[in-house]
Amino acid sequence: MARMDTTDTTDTTDTTDTMDTASSGSSADRIVVVTGAGTGIGRATARAFAAEGARVVAVGRRSAPLDETAAAAEGRITPLVADITGEGEPERIARTVMETHGRLDVLVNNAAVVGRGSLGTLSRESMEPLVATNLIAPVLLAQAALPGLVAAGGVIVNVSTSVGQRAWPAGSIYAATKTALELLTRSWAVELAPRGVRVVAVAPGAVSTPIGLHQGLTPEQLAALRDWQIAHTPLGRIGRPEEIAWAITRLAAPEASFVTGVVLPVDGGAVVA
Length: 273
Description:
Blueprint: H1 16-24, E1 31-35, H2 40-51, E2 55-60, H3 63-71, E3 77-81, H4 89-101, E4 106-109, H5 124-152, E5 155-159, H6 172-192, E6 198-204, H7 211-214, H8 219-231, H9 241-252, E7 263-266
Parallel strand pairs: 1-2, 1-4, 2-3, 4-5, 5-6, 6-7
Helix pairs in contact: 2-9, 4-5, 5-6
């Protein structure tokens, strides 16, 4: 029996060019927009991108926290005061970035507000800020930024929450807006893939940020919340903003060019537990 010659069946496709293309873009070449960049995860993310060499536009409602975010970045972080829920503000942000930098590579939809209330106590007034900030604003900002992202072959990173994958009594509206953001992530990933734009999300668990204080919790209430969160987190601690920022920068990195449509929990195992 003649020996079967398998030489011709070996895949000899040269992937060098595609691999080089996928990993050639360095952070030093990129322009990144981070919303909610004045504190917490947004601040850590802006600084993490800047440390990699990117130029970051840090968006937030208050100038003083944004200035603090930018202070240690050696000019690589530019504050941009804006209320992303304001009429025409998403368009202004995108226009300012393109006029100033000429491109947009990464959009991080991080800004969010938290509200509490059980069914029977909710009102339109209590729900509208959550929907406007956590859901409508990211949609409008992504839409305004889309031409720049398409031109750059860019990335949208949405910041969700791991609680959105579980029940959250008295926090259902916040969780619902974040769950919706995850569905948008998957939908946009499919819609925008033919245009060269990736869309991913990070779902943080309990993280040490000022968001609890922004809810108006007393120190005692916040301490009780932290105790409960730690008890329900297998790794047994609260996360750090820098740990969430690491995940955001890695998913947005050129080396992640084959990753889209994913929602990555960064929660110490809380969801699986």
